[in-house]
Design a protein that fits this description.
By secondary structure, this protein is α+β, with helices and mostly antiparallel strands. Helix content is 55%, strand content 9%. It has a 5-stranded mixed beta sheet. A 3-stranded antiparallel beta sheet has the order 8-9-10, with no helix packed on it. The chain has a two-stranded parallel ribbon with strand order 1-7. The relative contact order is 0.11.
Length: 563
């Protein structure tokens, strides 16, 4: 309301100044009636409502300022209630705006009602000292000794009062023209316009421009009424009408009435009567006034922005971390080939022990799962250590080889002492061990590819985390600006903007404390290509040794057959 009043005051003052500047050139070009119509421009601006622009703004549904930060400890939400301070008496009555508004309206009401009372007092005196001499339609014609010239007043009870010496002072034609002037005021609604103009003057009692404009408006009204009368009169009536105006120039006027007796404007009114405008010019002037109103009102209208808070769409949920791809299956270790029975030679020496089984290839590390925004990355699991080497024939406790001796079902024999059935059993075990080694495949290219993919995913997650941290900082900065822009509304609602900003700064400190580079280094350290390559090489060497041991045992079995 206050913004509309202030905006309307400034706009109407500018439009009034414009009318005061152009009214005389317009009168000379288009006539007095068009010049009087110029006052519709500031009057129409007073009726112009505020142009409101509605803007929807999104507000978070829950925690409005920390969409990406989860506090370390439980805290009150950002815009929760803060204990308001108790306002003083000055604030309780509304402060300076309320005081200014009270003084402004109080003076305006005092001015208006005092002049209203004076008008009704003068009206009662005029009617009390006069008598009705006739009627012109619904308008009473009263002759009173308290008026010095013809005067029109009243909106509901319309009256034209003439002086007691009206017939003696004015000749017949002058009387007719004077009455036509007052009838024109009644019929054109000038008396209603006078009340409206005085209300506006009271509302702008402190504005000197308003008093100047009111006087100019009353003169233009009288000049326009003169033009209406002369437009219907013949050419020879101009001189008689001018004499009637001169005789009526007593210098007394009634506030809400229209009269001929404005002595100080007599010369200007007589001069304006010499200005005659054709009907075409008057029509053109009226269209120009309407065009000016159509342009000036939107340009000077008071504007406001109405914000409508709508819930923001929920923040996207962080995707669940994908499960690590399963490591390639570790092949079962091959059965240990049959070893010759442990025979001690004459010097008490024995053959060496059976070779170690190859280690299963180490599975490549699974890539890190993408992290949820703003959460610290969990530590990567360490790379699995290589599986301990298994004996070539683990799982066969009834069959063992030790140099040139073979132990089968607890009985130890030399290779050459084996029965055909035992030799067949040993051949079967060697064939099965050979097949298991054949099935043991170490795909170094596949392992290298999976390691590269894990490193690439770790790098991509580092970029995503840096981007999300930057977005979080931008959102926090926007929240700070939003609080600054609405600090007055927050204080009126009992909030403390500085306390809210302190909470946001704490959240910003949490964001800045996240070391993205450290998280990246830890993720890359958990995927060590060198360690994985060493484990693969060790497994390949053990497979080769197992194959060589199987071939050696096969040769011993063949030698035993030859013997």
């Amino acid at each position: 309301m206050t913004s509309w009043l202030l905006g309307t005051l400034i706009a109407t003052s500018l439009l009034v100044a414009l009318v005061l500047l152009i009214r005389e050139p317009v009168r000379q070009r288009f006539g007095s009636r068009v010049a009087y119509g110029l006052w519709l421009i500031p009057a129409a601006r007073l009726l112009m409502p505020t142009l409101t622009q509605t803007i929807e703004r999104q507000v978070p549904a829950s925690v409005p300022v920390q969409p990406l930060i989860r506090p370390v400890v439980d805290e009150p939400l950002l815009l929760t209630s803060v204990a308001p301070s108790t306002p003083g008496l000055f604030e309780q009555v509304g402060g300076w705006p309320t005081i200014f508004l009270t003084v402004w309206l109080g003076v305006a009401a005092g001015l208006f009602f005092s002049r209203i009372a004076a008008f009704f007092r003068d009206r009662r005196v005029i009617l009390a000292n006069g008598h009705e001499v006739g009627r012109i339609g619904s308008i009473r014609l009263v002759q009173s000794s308290d008026v010095k010239s013809p005067i029109a007043f009243g909106i509901i009870d319309r009256v034209i009062a003439v002086p007691a010496n009206f017939e003696r002072l004015y000749d017949e034609r002058e009387r007719a023209l004077a009455l036509d002037h007052e009838l024109a005021h009644h019929r054109s609604g000038d008396l209603v316009a006078n009340i409206f103009a005085f209300v506006l003057l009271c509302l702008q009692w402190f504005n000197p421009l308003a008093w100047v404009a009111h006087a100019a408006f009353r003169f233009d009204q009288e000049a326009a009424c003169d033009a209406r009368v002369l437009d219907k009169a013949v050419a020879r009536d101009r001189a008689e009408y001018g004499r009637a105006i001169a005789k009526a120039a007593s210098g007394r006027a009634l506030l809400f009435a229209s009269t001929l007796d404005r002595k100080h404007t007599l010369h200007r009114r007589l001069k304006s009567m010499l200005n005659t405008a054709t009907a075409g010019k008057r029509t053109t002037g009226k269209f120009l006034i309407l065009a000016t109103v159509a342009v000036a009102l939107p340009l000077t209208a008071t504007r406001a922005v109405d914000y409508i808070d709508v819930p923001a769409p929920p923040a996207p949920v962080a995707p669940e971390a994908p499960a690590a791809p399963p490591a390639p299956g570790t092949p079962a270790p091959p059965l240990a080939p049959l070893a010759p029975a442990a025979l001690t030679d004459q010097q008490g020496s024995s053959d060496s022990l059976a070779p170690m089984a190859p280690t299963a290839p180490t599975a490549p590390m699974a890539p890190n799962a993408p992290m949820a925004p703003m959460a610290p990355m969990p530590p990567m699991p360490p790379a699995p250590a290589p599986a301990p080497p298994a004996p070539p024939y683990a799982g066969h406790s009834n069959f063992n080889v030790n140099g040139d001796h073979v132990t089968i079902n607890g009985r130890t024999k030399h290779w050459k002492d084996l029965t055909p059935a035992e030799k067949a059993y040993v051949r079967g075990e060697l064939a099965r061990a050979r097949q298991e080694l054949k099935n043991t495949k170490i795909n170094r290219a596949e392992i290298d590819r999976e390691v590269r993919e894990a490193l690439a995913e770790a790098q991509a997650e580092h970029v995503d985390m840096a981007r999300e941290l930057a977005e979080a900082k931008v959102e926090i900065a926007n929240a700070m600006r939003e609080i600054d822009a609405n600090s007055a509304d927050l204080r009126r609602a009992g909030q403390n903007p500085e306390a809210l900003k302190a909470q946001i700064r704490a959240s910003l400190a949490q964001v800045q404390a996240i070391d993205v580079d450290k998280i990246r280094r830890e993720a890359l350290a958990s995927v060590d290509p060198a360690k994985i390559s060493a484990s693969v090489a060790q497994a390949e060497a053990q497979v080769a040794r197992a194959q060589a041991e199987i071939e050696r045992l096969q040769d011993k079995l063949d030698d035993a057959d030859d013997e």
